[in-house]
Fold these 2 entries.
Entry 1:
Amino acid sequence: MSARGSWLSRLWRLSTGRFGLIVVAVVLLTAIVSLLWTPFDPQQTDIPGRWASPGWPHVLGTDGSGRDILSLLIAGSRTTVLVAIGAGAIATVIGVALAALGALTARWLRESVAVLVDILIAFPVLIIAMMISAVWGGSLWVVIWAVGIGFGVNIARVTRPELRRVLQSDFVLAGKAAGLSPLQNLWRHLLPNVAPVFIVQLSWGMAVAVLAEAGLSYLGLGAPVTEPSWGLLLAQLQQYLTVYPLSVVWPGLAITFTVLGLNLLGDALREATDPTLSRGRDPLHPPRGAIRHVPEVVS
């Protein structure tokens, strides 16, 4: 079995990994399907049919304007996927770049990058997003860039010490002796060995990106009114909590399960890709230094 198939099978054997994969796959599939089909037009109003109870044809009911809640949730998954992937991509580029500059360059540049990261990390991500949104107006791209930059700094802070540790390994020194450039060493040896730590930080950043978008949309600083969003839907429905309390449950559950799935998937990926953790869970491959106790047979 290949290395990729091996860690994929380990990932699926973990209950957290299965749950995370299923949740993320469902959200991604829903976002793709929403591009082609939704039960009703998400923005179509039907005043006579407002506040319909769950049933047929409105499976989850309707809101105060008669819009189908299921269609709004399906369409809102596009916004969630766009924010999570966009913020994750930006955080990856910024985090890897800062970590590499802070680990592979001259001492004066390494220390300067470390000081810069310590300064930037003092500002909470959500506060930065709220400040930028308040200045530039509510926009999904503002949320994506704000969360991406904020968690890129977090990724750099956690990944930089790991890169410095792996940099002293024998295989990295052998790569240098073989004539590999710093970028080639980074790609072939350093990044694969810090991948478990990086994956956890990235999944956490994507989960917080989903929460940030929902929170800012709830406050009116995220997605515009014309763009379907779970946070915006939650803000609109909570005003009528006493009229139809069940309607608030659906967007809240969608946000909760998506964030939980991303967090659990990141933790499971760390266990599946980290050989020391995976050996610890495999009785045939105990952790290094562990003693396998064999029970004695008493006659």
Note: Residues 279-299 have pLDDT under 50 and may be disordered.
Entry 2:
Amino acid sequence: MVMATSLRRCGRRLVSSVFNNREFSTTCQGNKVIQQQHEQLQETGKSLNLCSAINQALHIALETDPRSYVFGEDVSFGGVFRCTTGLAEKFGKKRVFNTPLCEQGIVGFGIGLAAMDNRAIAEIQFADYIFPAFDQIVNEAAKFRYRSGNQFNCGGLTIRTPYGAVGHGGHYHSQSPEAFFCHVPGIKVVVPRSPREAKGLLLSCIRDTNPVIFFEPKWLYRLAVEEVPEHDYMLPLSEAEVIREGSDITLVGWGAQLSIMEQACFDAEKEGISCELIDLKTLIPWDKETVEASVRKTGKLLISHEAPVTGGFGAEISASIVERCFLRLEAPVARICGLDTPFPLVFEPFYVPTKNKIVDAIKATVNY
């Protein structure tokens, strides 16, 4: 009832003339903004952790677009990870507000809000809790534009949710469900690796013309710290980044796994193995060209992610690269991933893909 009332109020506010002047980038305009801002990322900024970078991005989104709303369980007082701290106090509880404990309702409300040309930023408290909203995401949000023949869409919907290992989460607070949504045409899936990336990618997601699921690596909320530009900037979606160049083997990952893979690259280098490391950033649609170019150079590929190996997104990358680079591959594609079990509690160190597991796989693949 509270959500329905809020939705009606938002609908009435649509006719207000203030919204006719809002600054919202179309896909084309967004690309121009990204081009103009790309050089500015070299500026030194403020040292922030990933949680604070997310908070800063949400501040900017609410400040620059009066049709942006942030909502979810407990977000008005900062959320369980404190990513929304201070938003309700600054922008008011009509734009930043708590919802009932109902993920299907949260996403359903977000679809309706976005369908009325608003920027709906929904928070699912843990990625493990997203499954009750699966039908709304897969059968409604993803198909909204298609089924209406492009007359209507909910492209302003962004679903933020923390995913992955946290050290003590167990099987209900540590899952990485990104592969479920990568199977669905009509939505984008984005996973940042660091504070600077998180801010720029989140702002791009919020301003994108498609519904997006933005998975935030909760393990890095306070562990990852780097210089983050304080101004408003966007990073391109569906554009992978080669964060370390090499010649012997290509490594591909995303999110929290990138820091583990980078450590493995350093260890492999001590043994004379040159690793090229790629951050995919956007899983759907993913940057096949960058990965293909790297594999054509190195002849070998290793993929790593926290989700279980069977049916994980690493399998899609592997299949695509085999199709494109079959005659260039010098070894089978390696996958170092989570195990095909529920995420364990005390046995988490055995479940997650560690640096040593990746180093062993690098050696095995290079020496194949």
Note: The longest strand covers residues 301-308.
